[in-house]
Write a structure and sequence with these properties.
Length: 118
């Protein structure tokens, strides 16, 4: 079974959407949660307005890209614009605690034993 090539969109459209920029804001990864801090305003670029509408509730960068049908790199450029103007905030998911910071299994066994004895 052959895999279909990834559609990166019409290059002319993408150039127009990003204003010719090709450098994305590095602070956005695929799982960064984006939240709108304001609604769209008249005259705003349609992609910016759509992002603000999508992100009324925390939405991951990868979900925004999928909804807009745009490559993640282009979405990251657009998000950088909105972040610079204070129209969105970015929330990075908390990293999972390291294994070293978890309680020792012997301690957990003792707690379990104590609970069973209650």
């Amino acid at each position: 079974m052959m895999r279909k090539p990834v559609d990166t969109g019409d290059p002319d459209r993408l150039y127009t959407v990003t204003g010719g920029r090709s450098r994305a804001d590095e602070s956005f990864d695929l799982v960064t949660l984006i939240v709108s801090e304001s609604g769209p305003v008249p005259g705003m670029q349609s992609e910016h307005a759509r992002i603000l509408e999508l992100c009324r509730h925390p939405t991951a960068v990868v979900e925004i890209a999928a909804e807009l049908g745009l490559p993640v790199m282009v979405v990251r450029i657009l998000l950088g614009d909105l972040l610079d103007t204070g129209r969105i905030t970015a929330r990075h998911p908390r990293a999972a605690p390291s294994v070293a910071s978890l309680p020792d299994s012997a301690l957990l066994q003792e707690v379990l034993h104590g609970l069973r004895n209650l």
